[in-house]
Design brief:
Layout lengths: L3 H15 L12 H10 L5 H14 L3 H6 L2 H8 L5 H18 L8 H4 L7 H11 L9 H10 L7 H11 L5 H14 L18 H5 L2
The structure holds a DNA duplex.
Length: 212
DNA sequence: CTCCCGATAT
DNA sequence: ATATCAGGAG
């Protein structure tokens, strides 16, 4: 009998041994840049986001630049990241709100952040964890898939998955753990053909044991 | 639940 | 051709 807490402990240990130096793979120099980069990262690889932001941040250096920019032009500038119409609208609107309601300062509070257009708990937790040292579990596509495969959650809703994970992962590890799971998801526990043969979690993994 | 959406891997 | 990528909003 291996329960969730035991699986979580084993997983934390495994990740620390194999993904010790995982960190944010989005490139940024300040909270403004990480916020924009994370919005762009929805359903897009970080590699592509980095390619776009490399030139994007030379043109747009702060929220004023996005607020004053033409919407159509922002769309073209971020087009390769996909969902470019929604993302451009959200970035422009969010820039206006931060300037007008928050006096140009990003609110360091998840309950305020998620009120902003285009920002959900995933994006908010990325920003808070990496720029402000506020622990948060980032439930993205990798964390969701792997948590379900390992049986760390039975839920499909990201908010509920986040709650389930907060119960079994030590709070001080939340941010680091999220980066580690994402690296694990990219290299071992991939969506398509997971490398169960070389995965040390195999013996406690429902998914691995349900495969042929 | 659906829609938004381009680029790459399989 | 289809699945997938650091999701969020209506």
């Amino acid at each position: 009998m291996t329960n969730r807490k035991e699986i979580a402990e084993k997983f934390v240990k495994y990740l620390d041994e194999n993904f010790a130096d995982s960190k944010c793979s989005l490139k940024y120099e300040n909270p403004f840049q990480l916020l924009i980069a994370t919005i762009l990262s929805a359903q897009c690889t970080d590699e592509r986001v980095n390619k776009v932001t490399a030139t994007l941040f030379k043109k747009y250096k702060n929220f004023e630049d996005f607020k004053n920019a033409d919407l159509e032009e922002i769309m073209e500038d971020i087009r390769p990241t996909g969902f470019f119409r929604n993302k451009a609208k959200n970035i422009k609107k969010l820039s206006e709100v931060i300037l007008e309601k928050y006096e140009g300062v990003i609110p360091v509070d998840i309950n305020e952040l998620v009120k902003l257009p285009g920002i959900g708990r995933k994006t908010a937790n990325v920003l808070l964890g990496n720029c402000f040292n506020i622990p948060g579990i980032v439930v993205d596509t990798h964390v969701k898939r792997i948590s379900q495969r390992l049986g760390l959650t039975d839920n499909d809703n990201p908010d509920k998955i986040e709650q389930d994970l907060m119960e079994v992962i030590p709070k001080e590890k939340w941010t680091k753990w999220s980066h580690q799971v994402i690296d694990f998801g990219r290299k071992i526990c991939t969506a398509k053909k997971p490398k169960c043969d070389i995965c040390e979690m195999r013996d406690v993994c429902k998914f691995a044991n349900s495969e042929a």
